[in-house]
Write a structure and sequence with these properties.
This protein is of the alpha/beta class. The protein contains nine helices and 14 strands. It has helices at about 45-60, 75-85, 100-110, 210-215, 250-265, 270-290, 315-320, 325-340, 365-390, and strands at about 70-75, 95, 120, 140-145, 145, 150, 165-170, 185-190, 200-205, 230, 235, 295, 310-315, 355-360.
Length: about 400
């Protein structure tokens, strides 16, 4: 099928999925041996574990002391929905979206919450919207890092410190790999299953004092399900932010998150996590710069994600195919790598342009990405030869 020889070295860990992501290096089920299984999460042992997870989150992420951190159900999605349903509606809102999850939040604001004053500020895959058009006298909802487009905001400089509205930031594929400017963010959400490779189902909700003030002074016009309620009798339910979760958490997942946080501390904390993700991204960036086969989906270098790295095939033999043809090429490409146990789950997200999405977060070893590169060349040569022979 191709004259290109199959590489000899395989990645030690072929897990490059963008969620759930690779477990931290050296992980084994033995890391969970001290989980508080069979015990109430409200018992002293359970609450202590949950408080430890919150405290370690604050330490590793460098969350300001006056911000609340809570563990909430339903992953990052649950955390974003909780924030939107509880906080929006007092003033107009700018919904900023440049990929599928951001578009989902727009849909929720318009079709589910049916807010009266919504501005959608959009950009196509691969681009950021014009951030200067955002009105921060209004509330603003945006993703820090577009998981399905590989496009991130470069920093928080576009957000004014004296804003009147709240900023609600979905940071699920950014937290622990990119530096979040908490002073510019009133709500930050993320899940355990992204950069730290934790298990799914649990989300994190981080609230600024301004967000707490809104919660205690504003009551939405719509009813709130119990699972979304953050206040009682006009006051914040402080217990949520001290380990008293709204519904029963998996103590096995809590133990796994604690393990990932302790690993993060052991390697040097946030600086080390960002450096690992940056080093991983550089492997893919160097390869993309040296091959005509692919290019970044993100058109501007400063906006390229260092976690969910999205590429498209730029070789004319593939780029000139229609959408169905490109989808078929990608399907065959990733199937070759999966068959060889070299890389799993690296096709682009279903709503994104056809291409690749390779997770480069902090739990991925740089050596594994280096070992992957020759296999990417091999798979491309094989698929291109198959395409030529079928013509």
């Amino acid at each position: 099928m191709t004259s290109v020889m199959k590489p000899g070295l395989r990645p030690a860990n072929p897990n490059f999925s963008s969620g759930p992501c690779a477990k931290r290096p050296g992980w084994s089920p033995d890391a969970l041996k001290n989980a508080a299984l069979g015990r109430s999460h409200r018992a002293k042992i359970g609450k202590t574990k949950l408080e430890q997870a919150i405290d370690l989150t604050r330490e590793v992420l460098r969350v300001p002391a006056d911000y609340r951190i809570g563990i909430v159900p339903a992953s990052d999605t649950g955390a974003v929905e909780m924030a939107m349903w509880s906080l929006l509606g007092q003033r107009g809102v700018d919904m900023v979206a440049w990929e599928s999850f951001g578009e989902g939040w727009v849909t929720d604001a318009v079709k589910q919450l049916r807010l009266a004053d919504v501005r959608a500020i959009n950009a196509p895959y691969g681009e950021l919207p014009n951030l200067a058009t955002i009105d921060f006298d209004r509330d603003v909802v945006f993703t820090w890092n577009g998981t399905t487009s590989g496009v991130r905001v470069p920093n928080g400089d576009f957000i004014p410190g004296d804003r009147k509205g709240l900023t609600i930031c979905d940071a699920t594929s950014a937290a622990f790999a990119q530096r979040l400017d908490f002073a510019k963010l009133d709500v930050v959400t993320f899940s355990w299953q992204k950069v730290l490779g934790g298990e799914g189902g649990h989300g994190m909700l981080v609230l600024s004092p301004r967000a707490v003030e809104r919660l205690e002074s504003y009551r939405p016009a719509w009813p709130l399900p119990k699972i979304f309620r953050l206040t009682a009798n006009g006051k914040l339910i402080e217990g949520i932010f001290k380990g008293e979760t709204i519904n029963t958490p998996s103590m096995l997942c809590v133990e796994d998150y604690i393990d990932a946080l302790l690993w993060s501390k052991s390697i040097g904390g946030l600086d080390a996590l960002v450096a690992r993700a940056d080093a991983n991204f550089k492997v893919i960036a160097d390869w993309a710069a040296g091959t005509p086969a692919v290019e970044f989906l993100a058109s501007v270098a400063e906006t390229r994600s260092n976690t969910s790295v999205c590429l498209r095939f730029s070789d004319p033999a593939v780029a000139n195919l229609d959408d169905a043809g490109q989808q078929a090429f990608v399907k065959g490409f990733v199937a070759l790598l999966e068959t060889e146990n070299v890389a799993y789950d690296i096709a682009s997200y279903r709503d994104a342009p056809p291409g690749l999405r390779i997770w480069c977060g902090a739990t991925v070893e740089t050596a594994d990405l280096q070992a992957l590169i020759p296999w990417l060349d091999w798979a491309f040569a094989a698929q291109k030869a198959a395409l030529k022979s079928a013509a």
